[in-house]
Amino acid sequence: NPTLRGRPLDEMERATHAASKYEMAYPLDMLCDELKFAAKKASFEVWAIACRCGLEAVATHAAREMLATFYLGEESISHMAGVNAGDLYRLLEFHRLKGSVGVDFRLLRPMTPQTPQKQPGISSIPRLNIPLLPYLPVPDLVIQSSDNVEFRVHQSIVAVATTSILEIPNGLPETPAGAIMTISDPDPPPAARVIQLDVPARMLAPLLQQCYTGIMEFPSDPVEFAHIIHIAQKYNMSTVIRAGRSHWTSICRSCPLAAYFVAVMVGPTLEGCAQEAAKMVLDGTLYGVYLPIMEHGPAVAYRDILQFYLSCTTLTIEALQDLPATLAENL
Prior knowledge:
By secondary structure, the chain is mainly alpha-helical.
């Protein structure tokens, strides 16, 4: 690793994380100065550290240091761990503009503001529409979401969709203070089992609803969709995963780049889908295109699709340049 006064960059990164966590202003200022000095010889590495540590001034300094020598070669891949595609997109825009950016330009935050997730209010509580069938017993299972919303369901029906959830040890034996019930019946049966999942209610509700209807309603947001598929993978919900493949195809038709990042984020469940989406990206332009999902996708994946797009574009241009000679030979 490049060093400064005998201190490796990875050690400086660990120290910077610690100084930020414990709000140690003076040590953090000193570390930022050291990182800026190190950027003279290791600008890309320092930029990546700044991305991971959230240091806007250090990232900007490193980006200016690499203006004359920037190249996304194979050696850059090892430094991109923990950096998202949105960060890399903004770095490329910074270089496309040769550093002549406005005062509002930021390397380490989205160019469009993101609305923070809020605790669900009474009017926005996800609810289950359990069919009223005469043979359906009283719900005997309470599944509590990570944001403290409770869903009363039937163990036997949930078991058809996934046995993994039922294998989770019982949570709290009674309703905690502030919990919100989602079924109109005010009193759960005394023997109702309680399971707590690290899943927000807005994602848990459609997954549980699917257990009753067999129909999965996916969110329109690609990021939310990717998270739901992750949850379905975790709890072995095969029906949801199969439906997810079809929904991914519809995303790919409307926005191949978003579908590409979804496939990368989800992994094995959508095996081969990233390559399929990358081919469809060739039908449009990639340069200057920004999507919010890039704040969640890895920078390495963005570099890969840029390299693929550039290679295909170069081959196409070469083929077109050779076309007159080829036609003349065949006449």
